[in-house]
Write a structure and sequence with these properties.
With 239 residues, the chain is α+β, with helices and mostly antiparallel strands. The chain has 2 domains: 2-128, Orthogonal Bundle (Helix Hairpins); 138-238, Quinohemoprotein amine dehydrogenase alpha subunit, domain 2 (Lipocalin). It has 4 helices and 8 strands; from the N terminus they run H-H-H-E-E-E-E-E-E-E-E-H. It has helices spanning 2-12, 22-74, 77-128, 235-238; strands at residues 138-144, 149-158, 161-168, 172-181, 184-191, 195-204, 208-215, 225-232. It has an 8-stranded antiparallel β-barrel with strand order 1-2-3-4-5-6-7-8. Helix 2 (22-74) runs antiparallel to helix 3. The model is unreliable at 6-21 (pLDDT under 50).
Length: 239
């Protein structure tokens, strides 16, 4: 709980922070937002359960009160005493539920305020985050020349750093890491079979990546270098 309070205190100091740690703060906000929202939802479930139980007891009270009315008219004091005892028990149960409900309602009100406050801070952080040009992120159809090996790249650009995954014909797949600087991209291919096996360099030209590649494994069969081209896949093509 102390850690939660400490982080929440940090959130209120966000206006004094620069953009350097916006991404990290956004991650912290997401964590605590989900944590508070999960606890809020649990309390709401409990609240609904108490409401249903209260409604059930109120129906039982209405029924017994009707029976008591008839017993009073009949002057059946033996049954009347029994019914009043049952009514007393129901009122006691109702009082217990009402006490629980007061506590739960108070907790829900407090947690709803926290969720709202964190959500507001999340929105503020999203406004602080820099909007950078990103011609790299997305899914690309790639062809390696001269042997016309085709495949798919999925790339993500974070600042100047590029990361991603790929799959090529011949059951080759693995990870991509690299950088995008001054309009040029450099990608290191880390293959699941061959390890660090290739360097790709290129530029974005009319929604395409065009450049050259060079093998890093001297023992690899085939050409040691060549050209490559990748065309970005539109979203509707992947659906």
């Amino acid at each position: 709980m102390k850690k939660v309070k400490l982080v929440l205190l940090l959130l209120f100091l966000l206006p004094s922070l620069g953009n350097a740690h916006v991404g990290h703060i956004g991650t912290i906000l997401d964590f605590f937002y989900n944590l508070e929202l999960d606890e809020l939802n649990k309390k709401i479930v409990l609240y609904n359960s108490l409401v249903k139980e209260k409604q059930k007891i109120n129906k039982q009270i209405d029924t017994i009160e009707e029976e008591i009315g008839l017993l009073i008219e009949e002057k059946n004091f033996t049954q009347l005493g029994i019914k009043f005892s049952e009514l007393e028990d129901l009122y006691a149960q109702l009082a217990q539920i009402s006490t629980k409900n007061i506590i739960v309602v108070s907790i829900i009100a407090e947690k709803a305020k926290r969720v709202s406050k964190i959500s507001e801070k999340k929105n503020n952080i999203s406004k602080l985050a820099p909007r950078l040009p990103d011609p790299i992120s997305g899914i690309w159809k790639i062809t390696l020349l001269p042997f016309n090996q085709e495949g798919v790249l999925e790339l993500t650009l974070e600042g100047t750093l590029v990361r991603g995954i790929y799959r090529l014909d011949g059951d080759y797949w693995g990870s991509i890491r690299g950088e995008y600087i001054n309009g040029e991209v450099r990608l290191d291919r880390l293959d699941s079979k061959e390890g660090y096996s290739m360097v790709l360099r290129g530029r974005v030209v009319e929604n395409k990546l065009v450049g050259s590649w060079e093998a890093t494994l001297l023992s690899s069969p085939g050409p040691a270098r060549g050209e490559w081209i990748a065309e970005k896949v539109r979203i509707e093509e992947t659906e």
